[in-house]
Amino acid sequence: MEEIIKLSGVNKVFKSKNGETNALSDVNLSVYRGEIIGVIGFSGAGKSTLVRCINALEVPDDGKVTVLGQEVNELKNSELLKLRRKIGMIFQGFNLLQQKTVLKNVTFPLEVAGMKKKEAVWKAVSLLEEVGLAEKIKAYPAQLSGGQKQRVAIARALANDPEILLCDEATSALDAETSAQILKLLKEINEKRGITVVIIAHQLSVIRTACSRVAVIDGGKLCETGTVEEVFSDPQTSAAKRLLAFEGDEL
């Protein structure tokens, strides 16, 4: 299997007036091309920090983050920009441009990347059809449901044909039925495009539904990795056992 993301001995400490917080401690993780892997842990465990280190929104204090064969924190700004175009991001809060239509929300990253307007519109319409939202191209975000907003965000994340899709609590603001629909869409995109998907979640149901492999993080440390079936049916660490004790609840 091809290793598309690798974290080696990653440490990240946040300093404040109240002292230091070890957000990540000696994290070692490999992500393979074409898989859907989930990262789960209690609130404050370090899940989002891990994702932010992958696309260099956070810089580790120690260790290496390698993405698509490039050591992220050694890249110059221009090189990092090119790499980030290969990494799509989906957030809990959708992060849509409220004053722009659905269509313009999706054409925006294409035009920023230098695509001609006519081509950008054509591609955006195609992407919105792919996520089942072609009829909403003239609508504004305020006119959409939460699920529809997340579909727009997914279409936008796919605009530059990324090889990796990072989903940071992408379904946590949605109800159970809508969440299931979004996870189904992500699985379809993974199968159709072969995109590697990393899902950060605080709900066990999300990991069960969408992921083939899972990494358990606790107190900044990566405690256990394995297939979802292996980890959830026979957890080997106290951290994983505590997570499973919250089955059906939000962590």
What's this entry about, in short?
The protein has 251 residues and is an alpha/beta fold. The protein has helices at residues 47-54, 77-84, 102-112, 117-130, 146-157, 176-193, 204-210, 228-233, 238-244, and strands at 3-16, 19-32, 36-40, 62-67, 70-71, 87-91, 164-168, 196-201, 213-218, 221-227. Helix 3 crosses helix 4 (117-130).
Structure in words:
This protein is an alpha/beta fold and about 250 residues long. It has a domain at about 5-85 and about 160-245: 3-Layer(aba) Sandwich (Rossmann fold), CATH 3.40.50. The chain is built from nine helices and ten strands. It has helices at about 45-55, 75-85, 100-110, 115-130, 145-155, 175-195, 205-210, 230-235, 240-245; strands spanning about 5-15, 20-30, 35-40, 60-65, 70, 85-90, 165-170, 195-200, 215-220, 220-225. The protein has a six-stranded mixed beta sheet with strand order 6-7-8-3-9-10, sandwiched between helices. Strands 2-1-4-5 form a four-stranded antiparallel beta sheet. Helix 3 (about 100-110) crosses helix 4 (about 115-130), helix 3 (about 100-110) runs parallel beside helix 5 and helix 5 (about 145-155) packs parallel to helix 6 (about 175-195). The protein starts with a strand and ends in a 7-residue tail after the last helix. The model has no long low-confidence stretch (mean pLDDT about 90).
